[in-house]
């Protein structure tokens, strides 16, 4: 079982980064843009405004979704979490039975409370749903800087095959069958990164940042266990690893938004026109936690701040005033 021909749907920063990785690994890669105009511009310049200074590998073919449908041995959906359903539905008829369709987004569908692999299973029932996540910034990956991630599929042989297909000299995917753990880690860390950014923006200090990240990770683990994730996955690259990255770097949109909120900006102003996955995930994740009686006070505070129901100072005060308890 091999995946030599790979389609990447989504010509944003992450899609281009993944296409570059696979082209360097010698795969036959097609990058699918939303329309013919975008596809033509990218094909001519071999660059994107989303990744300044990064050149798209010559081995990457460019195509438009308005002129065809992706095919190949595997399909990667490098689109935002809230757009995944539409992207998966559009290509459903063209997917051959048993083809792996890999979600490369980190989030939970807000309208349905569905995880990314669940959305794929609903929209493309003939496909094998998979998930790619981990501590990885698109710019680092596109430039060929060393990166390690987790790639999960329900079938071990499929997960191993996909990991081999995506591996390059500087991009190392670890395989897993714990799809739920991988997608929960990616979704939850975005919300917690906003909280970490608020701590930084409010200049609450390194001690507070360390406490926030540690207690946030405890929330991530509780939520993951409640929804069937394996603990070793949550403590791995797609959980703890990604949390560390996004809670400490301004390259993270979620962390950057939190910093701006901590400095007093509104949610709309703080996003600076960028799509921030944690904004969409926060409230639905808190609702799902309540459904299974999982305590997530940090995530709940972030959701309340984003929804305008709580000010930042009041949220901080409420967290510090929580009853004392044993750590765990």
Mean pLDDT, all residues: 95
Question: Structural class per helix/strand content?
Answer: alpha/beta
Q: In angstroms, what separates the terminal alpha carbons? A: 43 Å
Main beta-sheet strand count, sense and barrel state: 8 strands, mixed
Major sheet strand order: 3-2-1-4-5-8-9-10
Q: Uncertain spans, ≥5 residues at pLDDT below 50?
A: none
Total count of strands: 10
Order of helices and strands: EHEHEEHEEEHEHEHEHHHHHHHHH
| Helix count, DSSP H or I runs of 4 or more residues | 15
Q: How much helical structure, as a percent, in the residues?
A: 40-55%
Q: Write down the Rg.
A: 19 Å
Which strand-content bin applies to the residues?
5-15%
Gross geometry: globular
Task: Describe the fold and architecture.
- This protein is an alpha/beta fold and 328 residues long.
- The chain is globular, with a radius of gyration of 19 Å.
- The protein is built from 15 helices and ten strands.
- A hairpin with a 4-residue loop joins strand 6 (108-109) and strand 7 (114-115).
- The protein has helices at residues 13-24, 36-45, 84-91, 116-123, 138-142, 156-166, 179-201, 206-226, 231-234, 237-246, 253-262, 267-271, 277-291, 297-306, 312-320; strands spanning 5-9, 28-33, 60-64, 74-77, 100-103, 108-109, 114-115, 128-133, 147-152, 171-176.
- The chain has an eight-stranded mixed beta sheet, with helices on both faces.
- Helix content is 49%, strand content 14%.
